[in-house]
Amino acid sequence: MFDMIPTIWIENLQYGAVTLGYVLLIVLPLILSVAYLTYAERKVIGYMQLRKGPNTVGPFGLLQPIADAVKLMHKEIIIPSRANPILFLMAPVITFTLSLIAWSVIPFGEGVVLSNINVGILFLFAVSSLEVYGVIIAGWSSNSKYPFLGAMRSAAQMVSYEVSMGFIIVSVLLCVGSLNITDIVMAQKGFWFAIPLFPLMIMFFISTLAETNRAPFDLPEAEAELVSGYNVEYSSMPFALFFLGEYANMILMSAMTTILFLGGWLPPFEIAPFTWVPGFVWFALKIAMVLFCFLWVRASLPRYRYDQLMRLGWKVFLPFSLGWLVLTASFLFYTDNLPT
Fold this sequence. Notes:
Elements: H1 7-48, H2 64-73, H3 85-101, H4 120-130, H5 132-141, H6 145-176, H7 181-186, H8 198-211, H9 223-226, H10 236-261, H11 279-300, H12 306-334
Helix pairs in contact: 1-10, 1-11, 2-10, 3-5, 3-10, 5-6, 6-8, 6-12, 8-10, 10-11
């Protein structure tokens, strides 16, 4: 029977099974990390505010994310009577799916990547830019003024900060001469780009806060004036998908910061015992450090006004990132260090 099946079909099935296995190796730990990032956030903010955080469900509250997931799965999915039901349910799926797609080009170590494409950083930037559509569709399809205002805020905010993020990424690419993510990491073997491009790293981190709608730039979901913003009409698993998408984007932006400025999977020093630690462990530790900064900022800073948010993006970050790009190009040109 199997002799009648063309060989190419068998090869395609084998390739598909192997690829699916690799995808699951990335997606399952990522979903688990997202769940326990919510636990870590509540613990970190709790200790910063001199309280305990989750401590009842399981030892040290470690089963709290699982309890939250079970609770959300048992809630009723409510669709507003005047909403567009198809787009209403598609929006959280788009947000969550895009947050997972980007990980297909993220290298966890040298050669440890699902798809090592030559334009990996461009792919990452494109996928992160598309994530605004999930929020816009959610706000519009709810047919309610508060979600719609939150969606418009998010669209303006994400577009504003993507411009300066683009200039920052181009400045890094000028130092590397390649759009391949592995090449960007390997170019930092001597020293991390966080040293010569430190102001750009700080600007990039602040821009990722705005890109992921995190405090102090969480204007799209400002509960004080928008009653939770674009996701106010959502319940049960659609709401959970928005929640998972937001935290998966936090991890993705932390990974991008690590790759662009902190040497990816490279150890801080190319000497023992630092070189004994596997690359993916260094990569995870650096992502955890950047994520801690996300949580630290949320616990420390008050929310910006919307005019302050826009002024920072257009009048401070945009001219500064453009000026630093010109400065970087000029320095590399006059010192004859432009990559070939």
